[in-house]
Design a protein that fits this description.
The protein has 139 residues and is mainly α. It has three helices and no strands. It has one domain.
């Protein structure tokens, strides 16, 4: 397979990560609206956690956009080497660009793991608040 095609094969996967992350990012807006309707569910800690989640999502999206751009650049460099516009030694630049794209994807993955952990903390807190409120209303 031609070297310039290989980075292009990764772009749809990055696109799917962008799509799913964007949908999850929109959930923060829904959560904020829910908290504005029910302020007793949200304290300062919860607001800080939502803000950190939003920052994680922003970092993930920027990293994934960067990865998609780097993969496209790597494919272009490899194509230019293949049609002899660039010298064969430029192939290393393309491979380096692919490595940078993979590093950006790895960073995005770490940030998504951090966000998922924080999301679970928020859910646990909300369940504790709901249980406390339910037990108070029974008394």
């Amino acid at each position: 397979m031609d070297l310039w095609v290989q980075p292009l094969l990764l772009i749809p996967g990055v696109g799917l990560l962008i799509l799913s992350t964007s949908v999850r990012y929109q959930q923060i807006d829904v959560d904020l609206r829910e908290f504005s309707l029910h302020p007793q569910l949200c304290d300062h800690m919860q607001a800080d956690r939502l803000l950190r989640r939003a920052r994680y999502f922003r970092d993930v999206l920027v990293s994934l956009y960067l990865a998609a751009a780097l993969l496209a650049i790597a494919a272009l460099i490899a194509l230019m080497v293949e049609i002899r516009v660039f010298p064969p030694s430029a192939e290393w630049v393309g491979l380096g660009t692919i490595c940078l794209a993979i590093a950006a994807i790895a960073f995005a993955t770490v940030q998504l793991i951090r966000e998922a952990t924080m999301s679970m903390e928020i859910v646990s807190h909300l369940v504790a608040v709901l249980r406390r409120d339910a037990s108070n209303s029974e008394d």
